[in-house]
Amino acid sequence: MFGVWVPADQAPKAEVSKLTYYGLYALQHRGQESAGIAVSDGSRIVVFKDMGLVAQVFDESVLNTLRGHIAVGHCRYSTTGSPTWENAQPTFRSSDAGGLALVHNGNLINTPELAARLEPGVLTATTDTEVLTALLATRGDDGPLAAAREVLPATRGAYSLVFMDEGTLYAARDPEGVRPLVLGALQDGGWVVASETAGLDIVGARFVREIEPGEMVAIDGAGVRSERFAEARPKGCLFEYVYLARPDTTIAGRSVQATRVEVGRRLAREHPVEADMVIPTPESGTPAAIGYAEASGIPYGQGLVKNSYVGRTFIQPSQTIRQLGIRLKLNPLREAIEGKRLVVVDDSIVRGNTQRAIVTMLRDAGAAEVHVRISSPPVAWPCFYGIDFATRAELIAGNRSVEEIRDSIGADSLGYISLDELISASHIAKDNLCRACFDGEYPIPVEDAARGKHLLEVT
Ligand code: SF4
Fold first, then answer.
1. Nearest CA to ligand 1 atom 6
2. Residue 245 near ligand 1, beta carbon < 6 Å
3. Strands 341-346 and 277-280
4. pLDDT at residue 450 above 80?
5. Which pTM was predicted?
6. Nearest C-alpha to atom 3 of ligand 1 is from which residue?
7. What UniProt keywords apply to this chain's record, in alphabetical order (predicted)?
8. At what angle do helices 128-137 and 144-151 cross, to 10 degrees?
C-alpha cells in the first residue's frame, strides 16, 4: 500500500504514478493477486487496476496515462472477498461532492454492522474495503475527513488506510495499529505514505515517523495535518516480524532482519541439536538460520535453491495452486547435503505442506538427518486481522502436539521458538503486540469475523 502527494507544479517531474509503481514493486510481497493505482490531477481521479503482479498490470504506456500530483496504489492478497477484479484496489466512489479512491491493508471484523449503514444495493464489490470506501465517500462539503471522524471510531478490526480526493492525500490507522503504516518525505518536496519503510527507500523518501494507532492525517499544500479519532491501544502484529515484513524494513526503529537473526540465536539456545550444517528455507528462513548457525557454531550453508519468480506459497489463495507452488519453488543442492545431518530453519508452519515436501525432498537428495527449527511459535489460531491462515482445522498446530506435527512432516526432530523469546527479540512490550495466532488471545473481539472471508458473498 502506497500513497504520494507532491506540489501540483512538480507533477510533471515527479511522475507520481511511476513513484507509486516503484513503491508497489517494493511492497509486492504483501500481495500478489491484483494491483492498482489511482491518480488525481487536482480535478479528476483516474483508477487503473487489474489482476496480477504489479509488473504484469502496469507498463510504461499505462503509467504515462496516469497523470497528476496525488496517487495511491495497492497490491492485494485477499482476506475478505474473492480475488476478483471488482475486489481489487484502489476502490473508488464518486458523489456530487467529488471522488474518493481508497486502499486498505488489514481486515475489518464488524463489516456487516458497517454495511448496514449503507442503502441496499450500493455495494459493487464484496470486501470490507468497499464498505469503508462507500461510507467515507458519503460526505457533504466537509470532505472525507468529516466522514472519517464519524465512521472510523465505529470501525473495528485492522485497517491501515490511504485514501485521496481530488486535492488531498489522507492516511489513517486503527487504534490498535495492527498493520504498519509509515510517513516519509521526498527530497524535492512532497510526502509518501507506505506500508513499510522499504516502500519509502525505493523512491528515495526519508522516513519521518509511523502513522500512530488511532491517528489520521491529511496531506496537501498546507503540509501534514494530524488528528486523533481514537486513543491509541497498540497491538502491532507479531507475525510482521516473523514473516510478513521485508527484512530491510524497520519497525519501531529496529530492522526486521536484526530481529529475525536474534530469534535464530535464541532458537539455537532453546532447541540445540548435533548436526553438520544449518540451512534456511529460502528466503524467509534465512536470517533466523544465520542466527542459529552463529549461536550453535554449526556451519551455515545453502541446501535449497529457490526459484525467485514463484510467489510466496501460502499467500496464494487456492490449495491446488499452493501445492503446485511448493514443487515449483524449491530444489535441493544434492552435493551440499548428501550424507549430512541438517538443521532446516523456516519462519513458520501454517498447514505443514511446505515443510513435509521439504523434508521429503532433502531425504530423497541424501540428507542423513533432517531437524526442523521454526522461528515462530506454533500457529494454532486463525488471524482475523489481515492474514489468511484460514480455519483452525486447517492449521497443523490447531489440534496437534509438536510431536504429532514432527511425525506429520517426517522430521527427525522439531523445535519452535517460544512465544516469550520471540516477543523479547522483537523489543516490543508483550501488551503492545497482537499474538493471537500463537496464543488465541484476540485483542479485538471477533464474533462477526467467524462468519468468514466470504461474508459479503453469502446470498
Ligand atoms: S493474529 Fe497473528 S497474524 Fe494476525 S494480527 Fe495477530 S499476530 Fe498478526
1. 434
2. no
3. parallel
4. no
5. 0.92
6. 239
7. 4Fe-4S, Glutamine amidotransferase, Glycosyltransferase, Iron, Iron-sulfur, Magnesium, Metal-binding, Purine biosynthesis, Transferase
8. 120
Please give the number of the atom of ligand 1 that sits closest to the Cα of 158: 5
CA of 79 to the centre of ligand 1 (A): 13
Cell of 32: 500478489
Q: How far is the CA of 174 from the centre of ligand 1 (A)?
A: 14
Type of residue at 231: E
Peptide bond into 283 cis (omega under 30): yes
The backbone region for 332, taken as left when phi is positive above 0, alpha when psi lies in -120 to 50, beta otherwise, is beta
Residues in Cβ contact with 60 at an 8 Å cutoff, skipping those fewer than 6 apart: none
Domains of the chain, each with CATH number or no CATH = 2-235 (3.60.20.10), 240-433 (3.40.50.2020)
H and E: helices and strands count for the chain = 17, 23
Measure the CA–CA gap between 282 and 102, rounded to whole angstroms. 34
Q: Average the pLDDT over 308-312 and give the result.
A: 62
**pLDDT of amino acid 313:** 46
Distance CA 303, CA 451 (A): 42
> From the CB of 237, is ligand 1 less than 6 Å away?
yes
- Across the chain, mean pLDDT equals 91
Supply the angle between the helices 419-426 and 256-270 in degrees, to the nearest 10.
Answer: 150
Query: Collapsing DSSP states into helix, strand and coil, what is residue 348?
Result: coil
Task: For residue range 335-350, list pLDDT tens digits in order.
Answer: 999 999 999 999 999 9
Q: Is 436 near ligand 1, meaning CB less than 6 Å away? A: yes
Supply 443's cell numbers.
485483542
Nearest residue (CA) to ligand 1, atom 2: 437
Residues 208, 211, 212, 216: is their CA dihedral positive or negative? positive
CA–CA dist 417, 378 (Å, integer):
9
Q: What is the pLDDT of residue 316?
A: 54
pLDDT class of 127 with cuts at 50, 70, 90 = confident
User: Which residue lies with its CA nearest to atom 4 of ligand 1?
Assistant: 383
Check residues 126 and 318 and name the one with the higher pLDDT. 126
Amino acid (one-letter) located at 313: T
Residues whose CB falls within 8 Å of the CB of residue 166, separated by 6 or more in sequence, listed in order: 40, 42, 43, 44, 45, 98, 99
More confident residue, 327 or 282: 282
Q: How far is the CA of 382 from the centre of ligand 1 (A)?
A: 8
Cα–Cα dist 181/348, whole Å? 24
